[in-house]
Amino acid sequence: MMTDQHIELNLKDNYIGYQGGSIVTKGVISNLNFKNSNLQPFNSPEEYANALSRGSKKGGVSAIIDEVPYLKIFLAKYSKDYSMIGLISPTTNGFGFAFPKGSPLVADISRAISKLREAGKLTMIEYTWFQSESMLTSSGDNSNNEKPLTTESFRGHFLISGVSSALALVMLYSFLIHKNSHVLKNYDYKDFFRSRLNFVKEYLSKKLFSRN
C-alpha cells in the first residue's frame, strides 16, 4: 500500500488518466491528493492508448490509474507499447461476487473458486483471456520492472556475514590463547591424554564385563 508521502510525481506538466465513472478509481485518486486540473477521464482502452501515445505535452496523459482487471484488459491489447507497474499475480483480487444474505450459493461458489485456484485453473483462465504474464509487462525496458527478492539476492550479504563471523572467532581464540599462553606452557598434556586414555579403557572394560 502506498501513501501520498511515497509518491513523487511532478504534476505541473503531467496529466493522469482514469476510468470515467469509476467510484473505486476516483476514491484512490482522491487519496493521492492529485489536483482535478491534472486529471482526465476516459471510457475505453482505445482512449487510454490514444492519450498515452500523445503524452501530457500533446494533450494526452503521462500515466493511467485504474483497477487491475481493467488494466489487464488494456494490456492484453496494447502490451507491446505499455506496461503496468508492479508484480502481476493471477488471483481473484479486484472483483467479487455479491449474494443476498443466507443464499445457499455462497458455499458452493466459494468451494468452486478454491478448487479452481488449487488446480491452477484460474491461471489458465487468465492466460486464455489476457495472454501470458510476460505479455502484460513491457519487455523493452526492464529497468522499471520490479524483481522479487529471493535468497539469491542476499547471497553477497550472507557471504560477508559468514566471513566476518569466522574472522571474529579466529581473533577471539587467538586472543584467549595469547592471554593464557603461560598456563598452556605449564600444562602437562601427557597427564591429560593419559587420564583420558585410562578413562576410555575403564569404560570399555566395564562394557565387556557387563556383557559377559
From TrEMBL:
Asked if the Swiss-Prot or TrEMBL record annotates the protein with the keyword Transport, the reply is yes
Q: Where are the transmembrane segments?
A: 158-177
Where does it live in the cell?
A: Membrane
Gene Ontology, cellular component aspect: membrane
- Which portions of this protein are annotated as coiled-coil regions? none
Q: Which domain of life is it from?
A: Eukaryota
The GO terms describing molecular function are: ligand-gated monoatomic ion channel activity
Can you name this protein? Ionotropic glutamate receptor C-terminal domain-containing protein
State the annotated membrane topology for this chain.
Answer: Multi-pass membrane protein
Is Transmembrane helix tagged as a keyword?
yes
- Keywords of this entry: Glycoprotein, Ion channel, Ion transport, Ligand-gated ion channel, Membrane, Receptor, Transmembrane, Transmembrane helix, Transport
Q: Which residues form the Ionotropic glutamate receptor C-terminal domain?
A: 3-132
